[in-house]
Amino acid sequence: MAYAMGLDFGTNSVRALVVDTGSGEEIGVSVYYYTSGTEGILLDAQTPDLARQNPQDYLDGLTQSVQGALQEASAALEFDPSLVVGIGVDTTGSTPIPVDHEGRPLALDDHFRNELAAQAWLWKDHTAHQEADEITAVARRMRPQFLARCGGIYSSEWYWSKILHCLRVAPQVFKAAYSWVEHADWIPAVLTDTCHPKVLRRNVCAAGHKAMFSTEWGGYPDETFLAAVDPRLEYVRRGLPSTTHNVSQRAGILTSTWASRLGLPAGIPVAMGAFDAHLGAVGSGIGPGKLVKIMGTSTCDVMVAPLTQDLPSIPGLCGIVAESVLPGYYGLEAGQSAVGDIFNWLVEVIAPHGLSHDALTADAQRLRPGESGLLALDWHNGNRTVLVDQRLTGLILGLTLHSSPHEIYRALIESTAFGACAILQRLEAYDVHTDQIIVCGGISAKNTLVLQIYADILGRPVHVSRSAQTPALGAAMAGAVVAGKDAGGHGSFEEAAAAMTGLRDMVYLPREEMCRLYRRLFALYMRMHDAFGVKGGTDDLYDVMKTLLEIRSSARSR
């Protein structure tokens, strides 16, 4: 018997998972919810775009979640912690952390403990939208190849934008920071005592998708380019390595200190980290032709293609990066900045007190497509793909004095599915075709209405990953691979996927009548999408409201 440990650092919590490497059976799981701020997020009422996290929460969560998962696993008669052969880690991203010359987060220093800029800059922090625009403009002028592989526009969610914004709004933090380390690199470094910036290993997933790293131009963006953005960025660049590593490689081995603290054997290998969505795709058994949608507070869409395939640059994607998901494959990333967060906003902020997701779902399920007369844009947290514009905001069209909470709820679900359809169409317009759609994440396990609406709008069967915690499972698979076959792990991710992943029996099939109705609504969605989201893409929208009323009348007459 052999087991692997997967650590999944999400937006609000960290989850530890103990998995049988031979069968994929999950025998121990524990979740620790971050205690700082609001649901683990440090906010600023004066700056709605700000979202930071306390690195101490990561350390506390690491300890308690692992101990809890091991305790639950111990109920299995054959389990013993000595049988854990490897550890893998995933985190949100881009979530860079300013660190000192020893690799210790500035936020853990008393001098910076209460300084928001010294905390981890969470992926959903959008304060750097102006800086993202500046980086995009300089790259278009000097290094267009930098943008070609990240969708043509640099995002405020990403590494260099956040550092540049810190430089301007909190120069004391920027000056004190010896380097900026992604959360996905810091946790493996903590476990292996490799935090010092000169020895810390950086993962290609974060570097390639968020920090413009590519072997085509020698690594991270060159100093000349960064100096054209702001000369002070040259200092950050000089501290970055020329190489990165994928999840089949080791960050190091578990130290005796952390082994004792966690209750694990010292010396077991720790895999390089990666983003939660990418390892969520791994935990769903991703392969060529498979589109994996990791659906939670936001949604990330992930595909892979062999390195031998000549892939075009695709406008609006979050990147096409060699080996960012699996070794031997390009990783393609797209996504939506808010999905579950939009549904939660309606329930927690707008809906009358006492209305739950379950109650709204039950009422929304009785509606036909178009029956509400409502059409929404899913941009409550900006648009990640395909417009890459975090300054866009949400919209609900067609409201009347009779519009009900469950009608709005359904319209919001449909809006996120329309956004997903826009992404699918963009991929296929550039000859990246999808043979199978797999969903995973919290929403996939909670809401059948959402998945049926997605099947009807996408016009494709929607399959569901067997595991309810695929990012942690994917991380555990990385731990099994770096452990190797001789130790009870696996020799490749293909072997790990065959042994440890699977799909549920339930498949959501598109219904032709609903597909036909939704195609008409999607055409209206795309007109709104382009009118508000594409510069110069204005449209005469005079007929949109009236068409929605016609569709509503037809649906209600049925």
Physical arrangement of strands within the biggest beta sheet: 14-15-13-12-18-19-20
Name the poorly predicted regions: none
Approximate shape: globular
Mean pLDDT: 95
The total strand number stands at: 20
Structural class: alpha+beta
Terminus-to-terminus distance: 58 Å
Q: Give a quick account of the main beta sheet: strands, pairing sense, barrel closure.
A: 7 strands, mixed
Helix content: 25-40%
How much of the sequence is in beta strands?
A: 15-25%
Please count the helical segments: 20
**What is the gyration radius calculated from CA atoms?**
23 Å
Q: What attributes does this structure have?
A:
alpha+beta; single chain; five-stranded mixed sheet; seven-stranded mixed sheet; 558 residues
Break the fold down into its secondary structure elements and pairings.
Elements: E1 3-9, E2 13-20, E3 26-33, E4 52-53, H1 55-73, E5 84-91, E6 96-99, E7 120-121, H2 129-142, H3 144-148, H4 159-169, H5 171-176, E8 179-182, H6 183-192, H7 204-210, H8 223-229, H9 233-238, E9 250-253, H10 256-262, E10 269-271, E11 274-275, H11 276-283, E12 290-295, E13 299-306, E14 319-322, E15 329-336, H12 340-350, H13 357-364, E16 375-377, E17 395-397, H14 405-429, E18 436-440, H15 442-446, H16 448-458, E19 462-465, H17 470-483, H18 493-500, E20 503-508, H19 512-533, H20 544-557
Parallel strand pairs: 1-5, 5-11, 12-18, 18-19
Antiparallel strand pairs: 1-2, 2-3, 4-7, 6-8, 9-10, 12-13, 13-15, 14-15, 16-17, 19-20
